[in-house]
Every structure is written in structure tokens, then in C-alpha cells.
Amino acid sequence: MWLISLVFSLSSALITTLLQHWARRYIDTPKVVSEPSQRARVRSFLFLGIRLYKMPLAAVVAPTLLHLSVFLFFAGLIITFHTIHKKVAIAIDVSAGLFGLAYVVLSILPYLDIRSPYRTPLSDILWYLWHGYLSFSAWLSERSVKFQVSIGGAMSPMQSLLLRVSQFYKDAARKHWQYLMGGLKKRVIEAALSAQEHGDRKIVTSMFDELDKRKLRKFVASIPRNKVLDFIPPIESGKIILQESFFTFLQSFATNEGATGLDENLRKHTLLVCLDPIHHIAKAHNIPDLNAMRTKWANIDLMRPLWADRDTTIRVTSRSICALVARQVARETLGEPQLHWLEDVTGVAQDTIYSASLPMFDLMNLKSFVYGVFSDQEGDLPAEDATSFKETLAILLDVQPDVRFHTNELRNQLSAKVQEINWDGPQGAHVVGKLCDMFPFLAAADPPHPNAPD
């Protein structure tokens, strides 16, 4: 055993040296020619040779021989000392046994958790043996169950159960056969791709707790806006996540503290990455932890600077958040903090809000939202902002959102509400004009007069 171990270890060293030489040749040979196209052809030629002669297999053989040499050396050591000195042999048995146990655990870890980075050359061998056995066993079980069904005669509840069991075994046989054909490496790739969304989400959310403000700013700025809700789920298990770290980051940007040194597009993108998850929560039928939503995410000190932001999307999104949260706050028991917040959002006195019926408050909230968006708006809203505005408008009207306002219910509701609102003075005329431009059916009907009575 010692002599074979010596042969295996020297062979492993020789193969490793040869592999290094082959790899260096693969890298250096294309550099002999100067033309890029010729280098590409030489590299392609060599690569096809590597695939044809299975060089990756040679790279696996070298460590496998070394592992075998270690086990043969230990085995020879144990046998030798059992014939020389029992106490020393026992000590070697224990130490070699612990090493062998650790090796076996490392070999089977990929089967217990495919994400495990620990594996040995034995892992691949065991993978093929294990999944070959499972595939064959499932196939035999399926054939056995099918045979029992075939001799059972007329269909019965038991046979229906057996058919489902047969299908289960058939699916299991197919799955393990695919694992057998693909190998351990392909299974790791499949698992990584199938868990991509969850993995990305876990990484992104953990970053908010681990990065400092400067690094977090760069990280958030790199997140595509259309992927924000995938990467940063606003709600998990009915709770708003990332409350503290996310709020601190948003607060620094709302006050322009975190935007120092950023160009306008990057500042806008980063701020919207923060606002979009909040907007998504605000559109929920029942906002989880409404009190936290009001005092933190829709905090007036945080939102008021955003209402006056130079960017239209930020203004519309922040106004929409406050209007949607106000709609749900008004349906809760109103105390002093809630009334004070609603007064700041709508611009209506607390006493008026407290004494108003729910439909009357909804009307005041709708007017406040429309005024907030259009009072300082020059020109039409960009398409994306117009869509967001219409979606919020539909929710405030308590109608299923339809951003094109195609349904008669939406049109009738909006027409009726607009006619009920008192649009004051020149600013009211400006807002009414904007509404009629956005919704031509309002202009086609009797247009609301800016000074019409409530």
C-alpha cells in the first residue's frame, strides 16, 4: 500500500506539472501570430482539441490520485502498527478515522445542500452512483405499480391512488435520470438559475444593512428601476421590511444630503429607487403598519421637499404616496397626530376634516392630489407620470384601476367628482384645463367652472 501510494502521489505530481505546461501552451501559442483574427482561429483550434481529448478529465484525475495515495498511506500505516504496537495503532485508528469521517461528510454535503462549496473527487462518483440507483429504483417502482393497476380490472378509488403513485415514481425517475446525465456541475448551475430571483433579492436587501452611506448610494444608483420591486420587496410576511436603514437613506436624499456630488439623472434615479417600493405599499388595499407608513415613509417633513422637486416624476410619485396613505388614514380612528398629518397633506383645517363625512374627505383628498400635481405643472405630464397619476386617481375614486379610463364607471365617477369640487380662481382654471387635456371626455361634457359652488 505504501509503494502504490508513492506511485499515485508521484503520478499526481507529474500530471499536475503536465497540466500546467499544457495550460501555458494554450495561452501562449495564439500570441505567436499578430493578427487578432488569426489569434482567434488558433485559440479556437486549440480549444476544440481540448474538448476532443477531454482535458478537463485529466484535471480531475490528478487530485483523485493524490487523494487515493493518502488513503493508501493511512491504510498501510494502520495495518503496520497493528502488527507492531497496539496502543500506537489505536491512536492512528482514531486520527485516521476522524479524517475519513470528515472526508465522507465533505463528499456528501453537495447532496444535502447544493450550495455547499465543499466537495471531493468522491462527490462526483457518488453523485452518479446515487442518482443512477434512485432513477433505476423509481423506474422499477413505477413498473410495479402499473402492473398492479393493469391486473385490477375496473377503475376503483384504490386504482386511482395507484395511478397517482405511478405518476409520482415516473416523475422521480425522470428527474434523477436528468441529474445523472447532467452531473453535479450542471445541477449546481440549474439550482443557481432557478433561485436567481430569491438570491438577488436576499443579496440586495442585505446590502442595505451592511453598506455605509457612501457605498450604499453607489449601490442603489446601480439598481435598474424596473427591477426595484423584484430586488427590494416592500412587504414580506405582511410586514414592511428594511424600515430603519431604508428610511435613513431616503431621508438623506430627500434633504439633498445624500445627493451631493450626483448629477441630476443619477439623483433622480436613486431617489425613485427609494420611492417606488413606498408607492407600491401605498397602493395596497390594506397598508400594513399604517401608523409607521404615516409617520416615516409619508412623513410631511420628508415629503414636502419632494412635492416641490424640480423633477415631475418625483413630484407625482410623492404626491401619490401621500394621497393614497391619507385615504386609508381617514378610515381609521382619528386622533390629534392623524388629524395634524391629514391637515398638512390636504391643506384643509383639522376641524373640517374631523366633522366631514368619509365621501366628503375623499373629495377633499382628491382635490388636494390633483392640485398638488397640476398647480405648478407646465405642459403635459410625461407618459409614465400620466399613467401613475391615472392609477392613483382610480384608487382614490375607489374604482378598479384602468389607466386609460376606458370603463364607463371610471368616467362617470371622475366626471361627477370633478363637477362637485370647487375649483378656485385662476389656479383652479389652470388645473381644470390640465384635467380636460388629459381626459377629453371631461371637456366633451359640461366642463367644470373654476368658481362653481361646492
Features:
single chain; 454 residues; mainly alpha; 3 domains; two-stranded antiparallel sheet; 21 helices; 75% helix; elongated
Overview of the molecule:
There is one protein chain. Helix 5 runs antiparallel to helix 6 (157-194). The chain has three domains: 2-84; 123-196; 198-378. Strands 1-2 form a two-stranded antiparallel ribbon. It has 21 helices and two strands. The protein has helices spanning 2-28, 36-52, 55-82, 86-112, 121-150, 157-194, 196-210, 213-221, 228-231, 243-254, 264-282, 290-297, 300-307, 312-329, 336-346, 350-355, 358-374, 383-396, 408-420, 425-438, 440-444, and strands at residues 235-236, 239-240. The longest helix is centred in the middle third of the chain and has 38 residues, at 157-194. The protein is 75% helix and 1% strand. The radius of gyration is 35 Å and the shape is elongated. With 454 residues, the protein is mostly helical.
- Total number of beta strands: 2
Rg, alpha carbons: 35 Å
Distance between termini? 101 Å
Instruction: State the helical fraction.
Output: over 70%
If strands are numbered along the chain, what order do they take across the biggest sheet?
1-2
Count of domain modules: 3
Structural class: mainly alpha
Q: Topology as H/E string?
A: HHHHHHHHHEEHHHHHHHHHHHH
| Overall pLDDT level | 81
Unreliable stretches covering 5 or more consecutive residues: none
Shape: elongated
Treating each run of at least 4 consecutive H or I residues as one helix, how many helices? 21
Biggest pleated sheet: 2 strands, antiparallel
The proportion of strand residues reads under 5%
